[in-house]
Amino acid sequence: MAQGDTELEARLEEQDEFEPSEEFVAQANVSDAGIYDEFEENWPECWERAADLLDWDEEYDEVLDDSNPPFYEWFTGGELNACHNCVDRHVENGDKNRVAIKWEGEHGETRTYTYQDLYREVNEFAAALRDLGVEEDDVVTLYMPMVPELPIAMLACARIGAPHNVVFAGFSAEALATRMNAADSRFLVTCDGYYRRGDPLDHLDKTNEGLDSVDHGVDATVVVDRLGDDGFGHDLKGNQHDWDELLDEQRGERVDPVERDAEDMLFLMYTSGTTGQPKGVKHTTGGYLSYATWTSHAVLDIEKEDTYWCSADIGWITGHSYIVYGPLALGSTTVMYEGTPDFPNRDRMWDIVEKYAVDVFYTAPTAIRAFMKWGSKYPESRDLSSLRLLGTVGEPINPRAWKWYYEHIGNENCPVVDTWWQTETGGMMITTLPGVKNMKPGSAGPPLPGIDAQIVDTNGDEVEPGRAGYLTVNKPWPGMLRTLYKNDERYISEYWEEYSDTDSDDPDDWVYFPEDGAKVDDDGYITVLGRVDDVINVSGHRLGTMEIESAIVGVEGVAEAAVVGGNHEVKGEAVYAYVITEDGYEEGEDLRARIIEGVEDAIGPIARPEQVVFTPELPKTRSGKIMRRLLEDVANGAELGNTSTLRNPDIVEQIEAKVHAQSD
Ligand code: WT7
To answer: 98-118 burial, b if ≥16 CB within 10 A, otherwise e?
Structure first.
């Protein structure tokens, strides 16, 4: 490292507050600090400002209907179409030749869709879906990797009022079937395969295996041909259709966008919770789209002239809100990349930023920690001067990684927004407005204007600044989930019961609980500490420990299992599995391999245990409850917490010795 670098590092290390540059502020979409008061004084009407970013076919009567909490309704009486807002209106407004999607395949091939191209293909696919029998309100499952056909299919669904249900392509066949069954989904769009680190991956085989387990049968499947000659030569079955052939049949077809009620479902997204069964988060057309668009404008500072890149996968909510809906509603250019950040080289991300002159870049702390580990020579070898703003999402970012990002990617010129939100919130909730607020590395920032968040103790009383407590949200917001699919009861018990008076119909008595721990400082900046439920966050991917446990106990020879998250330098958290074998089965490599395979089959490779520790017992309280906290301490090599309430205190030390032996 050069002398100058060392000095810089030392200076950055000391600094705990950063100001956005005058140059940034001067051009920012939001730069008036009065916006916080304005929203507070004029709540909930302030949210008209978000709705005004959209075209409405029918004006709404009321901004918020809070007469039946927690079943809030936003922009009631309004009608709109999400596809019209993301595509048609730009074509009509003279932007038909502006680039909507820049796609880069792993092998370096590129595809460019102007808004006109997108309009044509979305219309044709919407016509195809209709011909296949998809009607308004039918749930269409999209099990696709990062190919342009995924946003095209999403928008085509939105156009005809069929909610989409995107399932991350890295999920297993079983996970696909679980989600299709839960959503009563009879239609599927998938693809033959995709590339990972240079090699083609067979996706259709996995899809077909999943389809065999869909209880209610499937009316039609559409298959995108991604691999061409590298394909695996599967024959399409009777109700399986080739994407290109369908589009050829529909050449030049147009389908009028369906006028959807503001509260009509735009999509479902399954996410992990405390139980083994994933939760079907329901998002709506008016509230969600307004919120994703508003936050893209106010936080990501996106303008239609921008080239914007979010490196997430569309299979997660980040990709829905901030690759597809927000950026396209604003008429900007959104970049999509198919592959991994280190293929063919570790400069791939910076190569893409340079090539497309990316203005705004949004990624996850886990990626930043990997870039940091690889070293600054990779970003330094590229011209990153087009960047204006950087963002992170998905997990807490440690100040060191924040500063590395600020220095080596942003050249100390770009504000960094650390955005806290969830699948359920639809969009960003806690972060700095980059044109208004200073940044504090490690702290997400204050709640956004109009968002009322508090840190409370177990009784729901506000805790003092500096003390750890539980994050709560005290007022509804347009992007919030409306319920869990066909399960209003679970919606209440998962998110509201903890801190609300559930007998009351006064909205002031209802408090949303995101299941995160947090603390606040004297300036109202919130630092999110992590989940307080049995959900772990591996590389920004949310996994339920119960889901992984049930996969492990399904493996022959396993009697019992407990899964916890252990700290991991790059991934944030890693999966640690503690396993008791069944009588007559031997612990060892064979069983370990079968356990890993079992988890990959049930969920996918992202949930693969980092460590499988065989143990004769699990630490349990006298009432038989597994003490996960102790298992976490063991995984983290931390000092053990109180073991005096255990029925079997000796076991913890035995487990600890085993973990040490394995990691040496
Ligand atoms: C959980 C939500 C939001 C899209 C990606 C993840 C954690 C998210 C941050 C942040 C600290 C964060 C929380 C949250 N999280 N962003 N900036 N700082 N923690 O969505 O899969 O629904 O997970 O991710 O624990 O509850 P998700």
So the answer is: bbbbbbbbbeeeeeebbbbbb
